[in-house]
Design brief:
The protein has about 350 residues and is mainly α. Helices cover about 55% and strands about 5% of the residues. The protein has a 3-stranded parallel sheet with strand order 1-2-3. A two-stranded parallel sheet has the order 4-5.
Length: about 350
């Protein structure tokens, strides 16, 4: 069966969204909503795989929602909601815990990074996180998932889960009326943002991340103009001037990262940026980069702050999105239960 194209993606309310989230994912989300049916989720059930302060979690769910909309997502056109309001995610997540194999999850590098040395003390949820992510996508039979580079492995796992479910239940899938025996599509990652892997401003070999203890490592989408400029000014660099060709960025991770960010923000390319700034000192380049970043990002921060003054309006948007999401996911979940042989009311 040919599945209709449908886009799903989400972000965790584990802190303020940052430049990596914006360039790696949100910009594609905005493009895709012009041409596709899109479902954009605040994945709060993923957030609680590590400890979250309850009051801060509620605030972060609203703030991520406000940032999505301030950055350009249209909640009338796209479905915008938080994951825990739609029970299909948790239900299908459990079913996928029973489909996925331990060996598959043992290979997930993000779990290894996030659990670190204290693996025995990590939550079971953190380990099973990729199964819930597969459920997020497949509860809507989504076919396209715009993400940053770091999510590629999880997407491959989602494809494996879809395939195994289709194989394990083939006869039953045919019995419920799907003659080709294919129940779930194999979702495709869309990793085409202007900067699919934005690195930390303090260490060009580490991904820019919400959970980095140093706030100087990232530009938050809620930072004001002065903070953005200060963080760029303090960004780690090396003593050499900028090269004139991309080959000169090799083995210079911090320079590579800053030039990539500039190109992405300016809608230009790395060779063009180097043609303009080759030979320049970082002090000059950082000033230009800060101007670009402030011009692009501070309107998002201003609008997010304005929206956060009206939490009831944000909650209304989330409730409306959740109702529209349930209208898609609930019939699919009913069919999943029929396929598995679970009795439903
Ligand atoms: N540095 C990055 N560069 C490009 N894309 C990125 N993404 C995240 N960081 C970068 C993309 O943003 C989307 C949402 O990510 P998430 O909120 O689900 O969590 P994450 O990937 O784990 O991001 P963080 O910032 O590192 O969060 P914490 O620290 O809480 O784990 C995804 O599409 C991701 O690829």
């Amino acid at each position: 069966m040919k599945f209709n194209e449908r886009v799903f993606s989400g972000m965790q309310p584990t802190g303020s969204l940052h430049l990596g989230n914006y360039l790696g994912a949100i910009l594609q989300w905005i493009e895709l909503q012009k041409t596709h049916e899109c479902i954009y989720c605040v994945v709060d059930l993923h957030a609680i795989t590590v400890w979250q302060d309850p009051a801060e979690l509620s605030r972060a769910i609203r703030q991520v929602t406000a940032t999505y909309i301030s950055a350009g997502l249209d909640p009338m056109r796209s479905i915008v909601f938080n994951q825990s309001q739609v029970s299909a995610h948790a239900e299908l997540g459990w079913i996928f815990n029973c489909v996925a194999r331990l060996g598959w999850l043992n290979r997930m590098t993000q779990f290894k990074e996030k659990a670190g040395k204290d693996r025995e003390n990590a939550s079971v949820g953190l380990y099973a996180y990729p199964n819930l992510m597969a459920a997020d996508i497949l509860a809507y039979r989504a076919t396209h998932v715009p993400v940053g580079e770091d999510q590629k492995q999880h997407l491959e796992l989602a494809r494996d889960i879809a395939q195994k479910f289709n194989n394990d239940f083939r006869e039953s899938i045919v019995r419920v009326g799907r003659e080709d025996g294919i129940f779930f599509p194999q979702p495709d990652p869309v990793i085409t943002g202007p900067a699919t892997r934005v690195m930390s401003l303090r260490d060009g070999t580490k991904k820019m991340s919400k959970s980095d203890p140093s706030d100087l490592s990232r530009i938050n989408l809620t930072d004001d103009a002065d903070t953005i400029a200060r963080k760029i000014q303090k960004a780690k660099t090396d003593p050499e001037p900028l090269p004139s060709e991309p080959a000169g960025l090799k083995a210079r991770p911090e320079a590579d990262n800053l030039v990539g960010i500039y190109a992405a923000l300016a809608g230009s390319s790395v060779p063009d940026v180097l043609a303009e700034y080759g030979g320049a000192q970082f002090s000059t380049f950082k000033k230009a980069l800060a101007e670009r970043a402030v011009e692009r990002l501070s309107p998002i921060a201003d609008e997010t702050r304005r929206m956060m003054q009206q939490p009831d309006e944000i909650d209304r948007i989330l409730a409306d999105g959740a109702a529209r999401a349930r209208a898609i996911a609930d019939p699919i979940m009913a069919e999943v239960k029929d396929v598995i042989g679970l009795i439903r009311s």
